[in-house]
Recover the amino acids of this structure.
Protein backbone atom coordinates (compact mmCIF):
# COMPACT_ATOMS: atom_id res chain seq x y z
CA UNK A 1 0.00 0.00 0.00
CA UNK A 2 1.35 3.43 -0.88
CA UNK A 3 1.28 5.97 1.91
CA UNK A 4 2.81 9.26 0.84
CA UNK A 5 6.15 8.50 -0.79
CA UNK A 6 6.73 5.23 1.05
CA UNK A 7 5.42 1.78 0.25
CA UNK A 8 4.17 0.10 3.39
CA UNK A 9 3.43 -3.56 3.84
CA UNK A 10 0.54 -4.63 6.05
CA UNK A 11 0.38 -8.33 6.83
CA UNK A 12 -0.26 -10.95 9.43
CA UNK A 13 1.54 -14.23 9.91
CA UNK A 14 -0.28 -16.88 11.90
CA UNK A 15 -0.48 -20.55 12.68
CA UNK A 16 -3.97 -22.05 12.81
CA UNK A 17 -5.30 -25.27 14.31
CA UNK A 18 -7.33 -26.31 11.26
CA UNK A 19 -6.79 -25.18 7.66
CA UNK A 20 -9.29 -27.50 5.92
CA UNK A 21 -12.17 -25.00 5.49
CA UNK A 22 -9.82 -22.16 4.57
CA UNK A 23 -8.14 -24.28 1.91
CA UNK A 24 -11.53 -25.41 0.55
CA UNK A 25 -12.63 -21.76 0.32
CA UNK A 26 -9.41 -20.67 -1.39
CA UNK A 27 -9.61 -23.47 -3.96
CA UNK A 28 -13.25 -22.62 -4.75
CA UNK A 29 -13.53 -18.83 -4.42
CA UNK A 30 -10.08 -17.25 -4.66
CA UNK A 31 -7.79 -16.70 -7.65
CA UNK A 32 -4.94 -19.21 -7.52
CA UNK A 33 -1.65 -17.47 -8.30
CA UNK A 34 0.70 -20.44 -8.02
CA UNK A 35 3.35 -22.16 -5.99
CA UNK A 36 6.89 -21.06 -5.27
CA UNK A 37 9.91 -22.46 -3.52
CA UNK A 38 11.57 -19.48 -1.86
CA UNK A 39 15.04 -19.35 -0.38
CA UNK A 40 15.37 -16.16 1.66
CA UNK A 41 18.85 -15.25 2.88
CA UNK A 42 18.94 -12.52 5.52
CA UNK A 43 21.97 -10.27 6.00
CA UNK A 44 23.19 -7.75 8.52
CA UNK A 45 25.83 -5.05 8.46
CA UNK A 46 29.02 -5.84 10.34
CA UNK A 47 29.15 -2.36 11.86
CA UNK A 48 25.42 -2.19 12.73
CA UNK A 49 23.98 -5.54 13.74
CA UNK A 50 20.26 -5.57 12.89
CA UNK A 51 19.50 -8.31 15.41
CA UNK A 52 21.31 -6.72 18.37
CA UNK A 53 18.20 -4.69 19.29
CA UNK A 54 14.74 -5.80 20.39
CA UNK A 55 12.37 -5.72 18.80
CA UNK A 56 14.29 -6.26 15.57
CA UNK A 57 13.27 -3.40 13.28
CA UNK A 58 15.31 -4.02 10.13
CA UNK A 59 15.71 -6.94 7.76
CA UNK A 60 17.72 -7.14 4.53
CA UNK A 61 16.79 -10.13 2.40
CA UNK A 62 17.92 -11.75 -0.84
CA UNK A 63 15.21 -14.01 -2.27
CA UNK A 64 15.33 -16.69 -4.91
CA UNK A 65 11.70 -17.55 -5.64
CA UNK A 66 11.69 -20.41 -8.13
CA UNK A 67 14.32 -18.59 -10.23
CA UNK A 68 12.95 -15.05 -9.75
CA UNK A 69 15.44 -13.08 -7.67
CA UNK A 70 15.03 -9.93 -5.59
CA UNK A 71 16.52 -7.84 -2.82
CA UNK A 72 14.29 -6.42 -0.10
CA UNK A 73 14.71 -4.11 2.88
CA UNK A 74 12.05 -3.75 5.58
CA UNK A 75 11.88 -1.23 8.42
CA UNK A 76 9.21 -2.28 10.94
CA UNK A 77 7.25 0.23 13.01
CA UNK A 78 6.28 -0.94 16.49
CA UNK A 79 3.46 0.11 18.80
CA UNK A 80 4.15 0.82 22.48
CA UNK A 81 3.11 -2.76 23.29
CA UNK A 82 5.92 -4.12 21.08
CA UNK A 83 3.61 -5.24 18.29
CA UNK A 84 3.88 -4.20 14.69
CA UNK A 85 1.19 -4.01 12.04
CA UNK A 86 3.19 -2.55 9.14
CA UNK A 87 6.63 -1.77 7.76
CA UNK A 88 8.27 0.42 5.16
CA UNK A 89 9.31 -1.89 2.35
CA UNK A 90 11.74 -1.39 -0.52
CA UNK A 91 12.21 -4.16 -3.08
CA UNK A 92 13.65 -4.60 -6.54
CA UNK A 93 14.32 -7.44 -8.96
CA UNK A 94 17.93 -8.52 -9.44
CA UNK A 95 19.46 -10.39 -12.35
CA UNK A 96 22.25 -12.37 -10.71
CA UNK A 97 21.86 -13.26 -7.06
CA UNK A 98 25.28 -14.92 -6.86
CA UNK A 99 27.01 -11.69 -7.89
CA UNK A 100 25.01 -9.70 -5.34
CA UNK A 101 25.95 -12.23 -2.65
CA UNK A 102 29.61 -11.63 -3.52
CA UNK A 103 29.11 -7.86 -3.34
CA UNK A 104 27.47 -8.10 0.09
CA UNK A 105 30.28 -10.34 1.34
CA UNK A 106 32.90 -7.91 -0.01
CA UNK A 107 31.11 -5.14 1.91
CA UNK A 108 31.57 -7.19 5.10
CA UNK A 109 27.90 -8.09 5.44
CA UNK A 110 27.16 -11.34 7.22
CA UNK A 111 24.49 -13.96 6.63
CA UNK A 112 22.14 -14.18 9.62
CA UNK A 113 19.80 -16.97 8.62
CA UNK A 114 18.31 -18.75 5.61
CA UNK A 115 14.55 -19.34 5.44
CA UNK A 116 13.54 -22.27 3.20
CA UNK A 117 9.88 -21.87 2.29
CA UNK A 118 7.32 -23.60 0.08
CA UNK A 119 4.45 -21.21 -0.63
CA UNK A 120 1.02 -21.56 -2.25
CA UNK A 121 -0.54 -18.21 -3.14
CA UNK A 122 -4.10 -16.99 -3.77
CA UNK A 123 -5.63 -13.55 -4.31
CA UNK A 124 -8.99 -12.76 -2.76
CA UNK A 125 -10.41 -9.25 -2.84
CA UNK A 126 -7.81 -6.99 -1.16
CA UNK A 127 -5.70 -9.88 0.17
CA UNK A 128 -2.84 -12.03 -1.02
CA UNK A 129 -3.19 -15.22 1.02
CA UNK A 130 -0.27 -17.61 1.28
CA UNK A 131 -0.08 -21.05 2.83
CA UNK A 132 3.56 -21.45 3.81
CA UNK A 133 5.52 -24.49 4.85
CA UNK A 134 8.76 -23.40 6.53
CA UNK A 135 11.61 -25.85 7.01
CA UNK A 136 12.25 -26.24 10.77
CA UNK A 137 9.18 -24.12 11.74
CA UNK A 138 6.06 -25.75 10.28
CA UNK A 139 2.98 -24.44 8.48
CA UNK A 140 1.69 -20.85 8.52
CA UNK A 141 -0.89 -18.62 6.89
CA UNK A 142 0.30 -15.22 5.75
CA UNK A 143 -2.17 -12.56 4.61
CA UNK A 144 -0.88 -9.40 2.98
CA UNK A 145 -3.09 -6.40 2.29
CA UNK A 146 -3.01 -5.37 -1.38
CA UNK A 147 -5.90 -2.90 -1.30
CA UNK A 148 -6.04 0.83 -1.53
CA UNK A 149 -7.48 1.48 1.93
CA UNK A 150 -5.63 4.74 2.50
CA UNK A 151 -8.36 5.78 4.95
CA UNK A 152 -7.76 2.78 7.22
CA UNK A 153 -5.08 2.36 9.84
CA UNK A 154 -2.83 -0.73 9.62
CA UNK A 155 -4.11 -1.99 13.00
CA UNK A 156 -7.69 -1.90 11.65
CA UNK A 157 -6.68 -3.80 8.51
CA UNK A 158 -4.88 -6.54 10.48
CA UNK A 159 -7.95 -6.92 12.73
CA UNK A 160 -10.07 -7.41 9.59
CA UNK A 161 -7.64 -10.10 8.43
CA UNK A 162 -8.12 -12.00 11.70
CA UNK A 163 -11.92 -11.69 11.34
CA UNK A 164 -11.60 -13.04 7.79
CA UNK A 165 -9.76 -16.12 9.07
CA UNK A 166 -12.21 -16.75 11.92
CA UNK A 167 -15.10 -17.36 9.51
CA UNK A 168 -13.43 -20.62 8.38
CA UNK A 169 -13.44 -22.44 11.74
CA UNK A 170 -9.65 -22.40 11.86
CA UNK A 171 -9.59 -23.03 15.61
CA UNK A 172 -6.98 -21.26 17.69
CA UNK A 173 -5.05 -18.58 15.85
CA UNK A 174 -1.47 -18.07 17.01
CA UNK A 175 -0.21 -14.71 15.75
CA UNK A 176 3.43 -13.72 15.89
CA UNK A 177 4.82 -10.24 15.31
CA UNK A 178 8.40 -11.22 14.51
CA UNK A 179 8.47 -13.17 11.21
CA UNK A 180 10.20 -16.32 10.04
CA UNK A 181 13.86 -15.21 10.33
CA UNK A 182 13.44 -14.17 13.98
CA UNK A 183 11.64 -17.42 14.81
CA UNK A 184 14.52 -19.43 13.36
CA UNK A 185 17.21 -17.32 15.04
CA UNK A 186 15.60 -16.89 18.46
CA UNK A 187 12.90 -19.54 19.02
CA UNK A 188 13.00 -19.03 22.81
CA UNK A 189 12.14 -15.33 22.43
CA UNK A 190 9.06 -15.77 20.24
CA UNK A 191 5.85 -14.71 21.96
CA UNK A 192 2.59 -15.43 20.18
CA UNK A 193 -0.80 -13.87 20.71
CA UNK A 194 -3.47 -16.57 21.00
CA UNK A 195 -6.72 -15.51 19.38
Amino acid sequence: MNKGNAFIEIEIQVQISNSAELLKFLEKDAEYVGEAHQIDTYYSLAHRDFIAVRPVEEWLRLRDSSGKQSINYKKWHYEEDGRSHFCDEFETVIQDISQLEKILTALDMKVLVVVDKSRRIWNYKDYEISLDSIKELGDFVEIEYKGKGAQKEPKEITAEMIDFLKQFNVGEISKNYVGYPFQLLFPDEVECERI
Notes: The chain has one domain: 7-187. The two ends are 26 Å apart (CA to CA).
